[in-house]
TrEMBL record:
InterPro entries: nSTAND3, P-loop_NTPase, Restrct_endonuc_IV_Mrr, tRNA_endonuc-like_dom_sf. This is Uncharacterized protein. Gene3D superfamilies: 3.40.1350.10, P-loop containing nucleotide triphosphate hydrolases (3.40.50.300). Residues 7-63 form the Restriction endonuclease type IV Mrr domain. It comes from Prosthecochloris vibrioformis (Chlorobium vibrioforme). Pfam families: Mrr_cat, nSTAND3. It comes from the Bacteria. GO terms for molecular function: DNA binding; endonuclease activity. One of its GO terms (biological process) is DNA restriction-modification system. Residues 175-332 form the Novel STAND NTPase domain.
Amino acid sequence: MNEYDFNKINDKDFESLSIDLLSRVEGARIERFKPGKDGGVDGRFFSADSSEVILQCKHWAKSGFNALLNHLKKNEFRKIQALSIKRYILATSVELSRKNKRDISNALSPYVVSESDIYGKEDIEDLLAKYQDVEERHYKLWISSSNVLKLLLNNAIVGRSNFKISEISEFLPRYVFTKNHADARKKIEELHSLIITGEAGIGKSTLADQICLDYIAKGYELCYLENSISEAEDRYELGKKQIFYFDDFLGRNYLLALNRHEDSQVVDFIKRVRKDKSKRFVLTSRSTILNQGKRLSDLFRIENIDRNEYEIAIKSIQDIEKARILYNHIWFGNLGEEFIDEIYIDKRYHEIIQHQNYIPRLISFITDAYKISGISKHNYWGYILRTLENPEDTWGHVFDNQLDEKSRMMVCLVVFNGGAISEKDLNVAYNNLIEETSIEKNLDLQGDFYSVLKVAVGAVIDRKMTSSGSVVNYDLFNPAVGDYVLRRYSQDINSVFKIVSSLNTISSIANINSMRNGGVFSEGFVIDLVKRMFHYFSECGKQESALEYYMHFVYTVTEFICPNEIIKQYISKFVRDISINDINESNLYKFVTIVSRSSEAKIIKLIEFDFNPLFHKAMGMVSDHGDFVALGDLIYRLNEPYVENYERKIIDMAVEYWSEIIEDDVKGSGVLDDYYDESDDYSASGVVWDHVTDAISEYQIKFTDDDIESIVDCCNVSSIIEDNRSNARWSEDESEYRGHSSISVDNQYSEIDDLFARD
């Protein structure tokens, strides 16, 4: 038999459930009274002889039978007497034995006509089994039932996805279904993919979590992506129900994702999922980061993402929805009664609900007993108001008062890294920063890395292990931590320099530009930081010990900085000092791009360099489209004899490269998605021709028609068209979403008071 955890729903939800079930039992429409001070009446109907029957619901699962019985004797019986009724029905979430029912019947005699009018937990479960349509309407109860929980555990891949399901399930009681949920569910059913956007703290991840949970309960396997979209390709199984979840898919740093070509891979995967009825794909991103992506990536523009085809933007929550979120956090939270009382004084909850800075994350923060440790009940309301007025300072109390100096250094390293950092890299960076700070302040700040880390993990840093279990990564527990720390250090060039120079990670370099674009750092601040970093490299010989890091730094600087004369000198020296032996497959593109950008900015003169060794070595290392773009651009800027010696070789290599990937590229790009008929082969081949021509035009090298034709001939157009016909035959067989009723906006103020009313 299916068992239910009534602790997952609040008292108002239990009341609604009981009335729905007993309406079916009695075969009558039970009048439902608004939540609040009910005078002993939650529901009412009239029997065949027109006598009034009263229903009362008591959600006392946590309190137990003895507390319930005492309450019925001392409080409820008096209310029933005042109603002058003949029949009283009680529904409770407490488990009741036969003797328990007899005791209740005696306590409420003569109004309880029969012990069968007393419904305990087991009786409610029996009715749910009988009236399954009622179960489906009460989603949170259904999804937390024993049958569904077994399904949840059986439909997650091992490791992080299994842990993620536990996290999502744990938060379920606090979750409130809003219009955003209904809109998101409708969109993902239609398109199979969904990008949830919004500002920090608005509830993007929470909504995505619950959308995933719904699908898992319907038999989908959860594939939670930790670092890259490539993980989804590795786990993709044809014909198997799977939902892929990529939270914060562009990270805190869009440029880092762009450097990994994450944008193109995401777009390709969205298109693949759209054709597969057994797959769903959920992504989240901060609005500011996604908008940056739309500006910088043509792929997002071309694939309609900027026209919101796949996007749900969480912008507003109705007041009654805000009220339910606050109520759930209080009901299911760990606040002491003395703190809850402060929220109820003079109906102060209205001030919270209607505050212009209301976001669910702040509600979670101000109702968390751990976060308010050290604050007395008398100062609690002032703390709430300060938090709402200055949401950026939400984590200030934790960062400034609950962490020591060494723990704060650890947090700063994670923040300025701009994304998850491995335990190995964090350990090295921490020791670098501790050593530098100890020397500067003439203090002994040495401390065991793991002891210091233990303080920060759980409070502001999250520890995650990769699915393989081989690497431990650390990231921010909450993005708002980063907002606070960055704002705090936005004018402190000395501290920022020490942190960034201690990190020695590529992501921290890309993060500098992200902070500049986001307005956290001024242009002058970034210029000063770049000069200090160049000086640091030259002083400590970083070029020899960490070439990849140094090269990425110069690559990033030449991309976004308008250099002054000092920076130009550093860039010029870098290019001149690079040895041909330093060039490899991983840095070829970056170095050639640095050379081209430096030439365009008149930092170097190409005529002063001999590029023959570079081109000769590059001929054996070109591995992808980006390499061809970089080499083509350099050839374009050079005169003979480089063009004569190397242009044809590059063309031949490009033809070979494209001949191998053309069919997969055409499928991924979707340029033939609208072709279904065998007679379309000729026109489809023309589309492929245009697709290849557009791609190789980026190389700025002249390809002949024979070159292009040899590439196009390697694309099996007929096979792609046949696949399109097969995909077109698919029809969705998913059941209609259970949904939730539309939310009325009438009399919200009164409804909020009823919600928060206490017996």
